[in-house]
Amino acid sequence: MPSHNNPLLCSVVLIVISWCLVSLVSAGNFYQDFDITWGDHRAQILKGGQLLTLSLDKASGSGFKSKNEYLFGRIDMQIKLVPGNSAGTVTAYYLSSEGPNHDEIDFEFLGNLSGDPYTLHTNVFTQGKGNREQQFHLWFDPTKTFHTYSLVWNKQHDWATRGGLVKTDWTKAPFTASYANFKANACVWSAGKSSCDANNSGGFNDATWQNQGLDAAGRNRLRWVQQKFMVYNYCTDLKRFPKAKLPDECKHSRFL
Fold first, then answer.
1. Strand ranges inside 138-208, DSSP E
2. Which of 82, 91, 177, 242 has the fewest CB atoms within 10 Å, measured from its CB?
């Protein structure tokens, strides 16, 4: 899992077919805390910095990333996904360090034909190696309104649609996803130092994330999602990973 002393830099991207990555970590205003990294006019900051939209057409996608790097925190982002026929598009956000041996936590939303559910694809990289994919069909419509997606990372935590069968209908372009109301209670990492130390929470009003974990109710909700909506789990893919070669974390029952 991601190493404790490796700061993660967030970025957000909308792309098509190939693995697309979107990530985020920051707080406040999109103008102040993020840089648009590519896509020209396809990425727009609106409403005085409170809303950001990313669009994809046949020529290019678009993306942005945080100006700061962070070491531990809670990140909340509201996202409204591409509506209608979104086959071949991927909208996501991720936390990632830099370099060939990077650590990364991915949330990727795989579009599909109108009426079919979105698929949430997750993956974790450690020391540059991923192969820890899980997939879930979303049990709600993520395109009708904004939904909040959260990630908690603290010292206690070490860390193409249907395989390309459904092609992108470019007559529906541009495909646009929207981001709003982001919030990050997180420790800024700069010049080798963290804004949080052992004796303070970095000035946050709410620092409960520093010791947050799943309680019994949270574990029950997770099991419900796994039982009802999980469509792929790398820990049970014995064709890909013969039992003797399963990743170490798969030996723990909570990953099965």
1. 147-153, 175-190, 193-194
2. 242
Residue boundaries of the structural domains of the chain: 8-213, 222-256
pLDDT value of residue 206? 60
Q: What per-residue confidence (pLDDT) applies to 188? A: 81
Confidence (pLDDT) at 25: 38
3-class secondary structure for 3-14? CCCCCEEEEEEE
Q: How far apart are CA 62 and CA 44, in angstroms?
A: 10
b/e sequence 94-130, b meaning 16+ C-beta within 10 Å: bbbbeeeebbbbbbbbbbbeeeebbbbbbbbbbeeee
Enumerate the active-site residues: 104, 108
At 208 the pLDDT is 73
Neighbouring residues of 66: CB distance < 8 A, sequence distance ≥ 6 = 9, 10, 11, 24, 25, 26, 33, 34, 35
Are the C-beta atoms of residues 26 and 45 closer than 8 Å to each other?
no
d(C-alpha 179, C-alpha 241), whole Å: 37
What CA–CA distance (Å, rounded) separates 187 from 54?
Answer: 27
pLDDT given for residue 19 in this prediction: 29
Q: Is residue 92 packed enough to be buried (19+ CB in 10 Å), middle (13-18) or exposed (0-12)? A: buried
Terminal Cα-to-Cα distance of the chain (whole angstroms): 17
The rounded average pLDDT for each run of 10 residues, N- to C-terminus, in the chain (256 residues) is: 51 36 51 89 92 91 86 85 90 81 86 87 83 90 90 65 62 82 77 70 60 79 86 88 80 61
